[in-house]
From TrEMBL, chains A, B:
SUPFAM superfamilies: Terpenoid synthases (SSF48576)
PROSITE patterns xrefs: POLYPRENYL_SYNTHASE_1, POLYPRENYL_SYNTHASE_2
Magnesium recorded as keyword: yes
Family listed: Belongs to the FPP/GGPP synthase family.
One biological process term in Gene Ontology: terpenoid biosynthetic process
NCBIfam families: FPPsyn (NF045485)
Record's protein name: Farnesyl diphosphate synthase
Transmembrane intervals: none
InterPro entries: Isoprenoid_synthase_dom_sf (IPR008949), Polyprenyl_synt (IPR000092), Polyprenyl_synt_CS (IPR033749), Prenyl_diphosphate_synthase (IPR053378)
Cofactor(s) the protein needs: Mg(2+)
Keywords, alphabetical: Isoprene biosynthesis, Magnesium, Metal-binding, Transferase
Domain of life: Bacteria
Recorded catalytic activity of this chain's protein: isopentenyl diphosphate + (2E)-geranyl diphosphate = (2E,6E)-farnesyl diphosphate + diphosphate
Originating organism: Ureibacillus xyleni
């Protein structure tokens, strides 16, 4: 099966589960509308697709749980974008080709919609059926670490800090290991947990996740230079304008492309340690280094 | 034992546990500083003290878990204050007699510190020792509901909505049942869960929590009128100035005081259903209706 077919097979159900988890809560209409607006704005759904791809690798037929874990990760990712776009943070008015949440709903409701998505993600994990309580606790613990001060939020703080000075390459890598890497790693590791992967398999997948995370970010930095605003659905060239520390800024565009290739190769090498058909995860790695948005 | 002695006995340990849970995470220094600043700003610690008081009622000796659950609730409460105080929300510069988080750390870091506290609260519940996974999952599920769109955050949305029009009494009650009531209820109910309370005991405690929550809010509204800025540690008279729907505004000051007394009586009546020494919880109710800040 190709990655494209895999995505076509899973995306509709994934989005249905995601939206229903929000539609089904009892909450003020305008709050649900604001939460759904950003969830429905699309995006590549890379994180939940990784949960599903890893479950698929192990022929794990408990797919409903994979969709729910995927939805939980997407809620965290989406809340982080809503808060990131606020005027007090990155002050972005466009995201995925649409006005950002606060442009439509105002800063206060956007802040609260982000808060509610953050909180909801832990609730949907706790409420999963046919997953043992032990696994739920493990998933919740890992998601809290990946999404919080020790992961994504910590990475955002380092990222803001990096706007006022030039970071070294290890510092830049540390930003991205936390800011985008931690949640990608959770997506991949949670699939391994749901599928009862062995310690060796899980460790190989975590290695794959590490390199995929960095590759993803390097490609993001490259696209900011070579992409157009139309392709990206967000303002292109922002990094250069704001003198931000990026891989191309530290390594030149060519150097960044080489680094991207290195991480791609290391991700593929990690997959070789797993004695299963890893085609989808290989294609996923390829997609991440070749994507245009 | 008196309430005062109970608080003196538990508060130092509670605050130590709370601060250590943040001090021990690996995160950027300025993020931890911002998180700790608001946690250390004090406050009455009513929510964690309720967890401890309910555990005490059942002679539950697993005190360490009670402190951790209390700390998790206090993290949620504190994050909600940090976000509430932001310029895009209530725009408050003083809280508990100190400058608010964003005044010291800036809006971006304050937003992220709130996000991180929200996320961390679920992690500390997941990492508790000597609590079964089943109980952890139940606590995480209830906290997610109480703190999220169906509880506290939903109540804040209704509260903002109420600033632009006059609410009816049932609407106002609905705001407070969600905005402050849900988290207070969780504090009390979590103590019952940790202590293996019977269904009847738990239900009586939830009833107590309902009335305590409303009494707390009515007294808050009354204090905004009769209290001074110095006593409150925050700007007094803000509600009247902003034409906010409050109990005194809908019922007159005398009517609000009578309503407060009614909820106090109903809270005490609920406790009578529990065949244990409820002195501390009775005194807690009394403290809530008589407090000056």
């Amino acid at each position: 099966m190709s990655l494209k077919q895999f995505i076509d097979d899973h995306l509709p159900k994934l989005e249905e589960v995601l939206y229903d988890l929000v539609r089904n809560i009892k909450a003020p209409a305008q709050l649900k509308e604001s939460m759904l607006y950003s969830l429905e704005a699309g995006g590549k759904r890379i994180r939940p697709l990784f949960v599903l791809a890893v479950c698929d690798l192990f022929h794990n037929n408990k797919k409903n749980e994979a969709y729910i874990v995927g939805a939980a990760v997407e809620m965290i990712h989406t809340y982080s974008l809503i808060h990131d776009d606020l005027p007090s943070m990155d002050d972005d008015e466009m995201r995925r080709g649409k006005p950002t949440n606060h442009v439509i709903f105002g800063d206060a409701l956007a802040t609260l919609a982000g808060d509610a998505l953050n909180t909801l993600s832990f609730g949907v994990l706790a409420r999963m059926e046919s997953v043992t309580s032990e696994k739920k606790v493990e998933l919740i613990n890992l998601l809290s670490i990946a999404a919080g001060a020790e992961g994504m939020v910590g990475g955002q703080v380092l990222d803001i800090d990096g706007e006022s000075r030039t970071l070294s390459l290890p510092e830049l890598e540390n930003v991205h290991v936390n800011k985008t890497g931690a949640l990608l790693r959770f997506s991949i590791e949670s699939g391994a947990i749901l599928s009862d992967a062995t310690v060796q398999e899980r460790s190989a997948l975590v290695e794959y996740a590490h390199h995929i995370g960095l590759a993803f970010q390097i490609q993001d930095d490259i696209l900011d230079i070579v992409g157009t605003t139309e392709e990206l659905g967000k303002t292109a060239g922002k990094d250069i304008e704001s003198h931000k520390s990026t891989y191309p800024a530290l390594l030149t565009l060519e150097g960044a492309k080489q680094k991207l290739e290195e991480h791609y190769e290391l991700a593929i090498t990690a997959l070789r340690k797993i004695d299963k058909n890893t085609t989808i995860l290989e294609e996923f790695a390829q997609y991440i280094v070749k994507r245009h948005n």
